[in-house]
Amino acid sequence: MTDDDLNALYQKALRVREHILRMSTKGGAFTGAAFSCTDLLVYLYSRFMNISCYNLNDPDRDYLFLSKGHAVPALYGTLAEVGILDHTRLANHLNIDDDIYWHPNHNISGVEFHSGSLGHILPVATGVALDCKMSGARNCVTVILGDGELNEGSNWEACLFAAARRLDNLIIVVDRNRFQANMRTERLVPLDPLEEKFNSFRLSAVTIDGHDFSDMDETFPRIPFDLGRPSVVIAETLRGKGLPKIECRADRWFCNFTEDEIGPSLDELRVSMHKELMSKTSGIRL
Amino acid sequence: MTYQERLAEIALADKRYVVMTAENRASIKSIPESLGDRFIDTGINEQALIGAAAGLALRGRIPVVHALSAFMTMRAFEFIRTDIGLAGLPVKLAGSVAGFLSEANGPTHQALEDISLMRGIPKMQIFCPADEEELVIGLKDMLESPLPCYIRLNHLKPSIKHSPQFRIGSAEVISDGKDISIIVYGILLKEALETKKVLEEKGRSVRLINLRTVVPIDEQVVRAAASETSLVVTLEDHFLTGGLYSIVSELLIRERIAGKVLPLALDRHWFRPALMPQVLEYEGFTGRQIANRILKSLNGGTSHA
Question: Closest Cα partner for A20 from A68, A71, A65?
Fold first, then answer.
């Protein structure tokens, strides 16, 4: 990936986080959970998946399901940035006159299915992927799971079934921010070694840095990692990534900022994202 | 014609159908061969089964899903409610061995709240055929409905020749008596026919109503029964709460129809496991026992089992 590509992705990820911050007022949003998967969503919609405002009705396009539905501001922000969702609707967050609330609504352009009850979407996506195979489509079905969500047994039922049906058009992306709702995953119900768990279920798992676009760009195009096996990308992420004052904090899963906090928070976000960009691109930009 | 023959016939004529199961193949033994890759067995996993069915329906398929009623409607309840009900997807849930059909399996396998649970889901239709002949008569309408539905499967031989005219929400009125109405769904129709005979021998005129679909219920027929006969009996192999008795009571209260209703159902207990004839006898659901309970009620006795 060139520095220009990287720069474009960072700028987009910054704008999505700005949308999320603005949605985190007047009732709030699951800001920490949304920030951890923002870079993944931006990458997938911008460079990997075949989903755009032009092919939403095409059954052979790719699919993305956000199983950790509470991170939906990141999805709405991304859909707005890639031209699938009208920007102006984001201002309607939590307003009774629109469908934009704390969990995804199927009626919003670009949202495949309602989600948020954890452990539901991997089984649903398995059905979609199975039908894509049966219909001879050559598309991919991507599911973003939270790591805490892996406590739900239905995910593992779906993994067994997906492996049995050799669904190598199915991609599971685990947003591995290492937090449950209230505490660290490894302190409550440890998940490590996670790659081994998926591999032992006959899926093929790879671990990446979920905030590093170059790492994503070296990994996703290699999918399926093994022919005949579903692929799993375990993306190591930080809850609240991009806004240092809420990063990796158990109590910042959900944020409800006051109007006064938004300005300084946006500044903090821009400085932090700029530093990150400078560290990832070559000296020319420094 | 059997259920699986009819199902294969419908599915072969329309590629949208897929037949699924969580490894309960008793009702559909010939389907894997007739449908090929449109038969999908997910293994013993009702939650993944229902989720995958929703996913297939999102892609335009019409999944006809088979599992034991107890495990499908209870273990996977929230998946049915959220992934199928909320989206209103046309997934067809065929539940086996509901009610007394679980016979000697024991309470773990008894689905006595399936109607109650399924009717709590907006848009869900419920079809409870009395026997396999009626199941075959109504199957196409249920599958072609754009809504999700729950079917209480059974493969019993018919006790009567059913009307081939089927309409969702339309009951089969077997006799048009004036004294006592018996409203029944599913396998207990067979006992109700015996009850009718016994009561008629005692000089009572019986209106026997076989509901076919419990949701939507035939409101006109129920209203008429309550208005025109002196006793309405609701008869079901289901818990007293949430099933037919509740549905009829709600309707009568809503319509302000005063009438005497005798509910015959399982009142706050699971039934004692055994083979069907003994279960019916022990729980008081043979045709003759039902008749005696009705007569006792008419003479001012207590109504509950």
Answer: A71
